[in-house]
Amino acid sequence: MNSEKDEDERFKGLKSAAPYMGLGVQLAATVVLMFFLGKWLDEEFELFPYLTIIFSIFGAFAAIYNFIKVVLELNKKNEKN
Predict the structure, then answer these.
(1) pLDDT tens digits, residue range 50-67?
(2) How far apart are CA 21 and CA 70, in angstroms?
(3) Of 6, 23, 24, 65, which residue is most buried, by most CB within 10 angstroms?
(4) Can you give the residue ranges of every domain in the chain?
């Protein structure tokens, strides 16, 4: 009976952490994709390194903004429960 309580506690912890698990990958993917988009556009328009720098900075800001927004929304949702 005691082991059932332990399992319930573990699953409850994993369930509460699950929405946060993909945020790091999403943050990194946004920055990397924007970097490669800027690099590709630089090669197309022969402007290297200007668009790479601009898109990398924009990707970093967008990723951080989205990260903070999602965390705040999840925290509000958790407070209601």
Answers:
(1) 999 999 999 999 999 999
(2) 12
(3) 23
(4) 22-80
